[in-house]
Design a protein that fits this description.
The protein is mainly alpha-helical. It has helices at 3-14, 18-24, 32-41, 48-58, 62-66, 73-86, 115-130, 135-144, and strands spanning 89-97, 103-111. The protein has three domains: 3-66, Orthogonal Bundle (434 Repressor (Amino-terminal Domain)); 70-111, no CATH class; 114-152, no CATH class. It contains eight helices and two strands. The longest helix has 16 residues, at 115-130. The relative contact order is 0.10. The model has no long low-confidence stretch (mean pLDDT 91).
Length: 152
Amino acid sequence: MAIGDKIKKIRIKRGFTQKELGLAIGFSDRTADVRIAQYESGTRVPKEKIVFAIAQTLKVNPNYLMAPALSNSQEIIHTLFYLDEYNSIDMEAEEIIKENGESGNRIKLHLMGLDHLLEEWYEKKKALESGRISQEEYYEWKLNWPEDMNKS
C-alpha cells in the first residue's frame, strides 16, 4: 500500500476530511484539501516533515506511513535479497508433503535480530485469532508499532 493510500485509509478511519487534516498539519484554508488530495492520489509525495505532522495528527507511527509498499511476491523477495546484503539471514528447509501427494520444502527464514519482533507479531496475531483482542485493537497495534516509540 502506497503512502497516499495509507494516509487516506487512516484519515477516513479517524474521521477527518481532507481539508481538516490539511488544516491540522498547517496548510492554509485555500490549499489544505488540495494538498492532502494530491498526497492521497500519489500525484505528490509528502516530504518527511509533512509525514511526521500527518502521523502525529492521525496518531500513528510515522514509520508505518513511510514503510515501502510491497505489492507482490517478487518485490518481497527483492527486499529480502537487500536485507541479506546487510543482515544475517539464516534459511532452513523442512520437507513437507503437498496436498497432491508430492514432496516439497517449507522454507523458514531467521532474520538475525528480528526473530523477537516476529514473535511479538505472532503473539498479537494469535490474540486476534483467539478473540482476546478485536480486529480494531490489532489494527491500532499495527499502526502504532512499536508502541514505546510513541510514548514521550
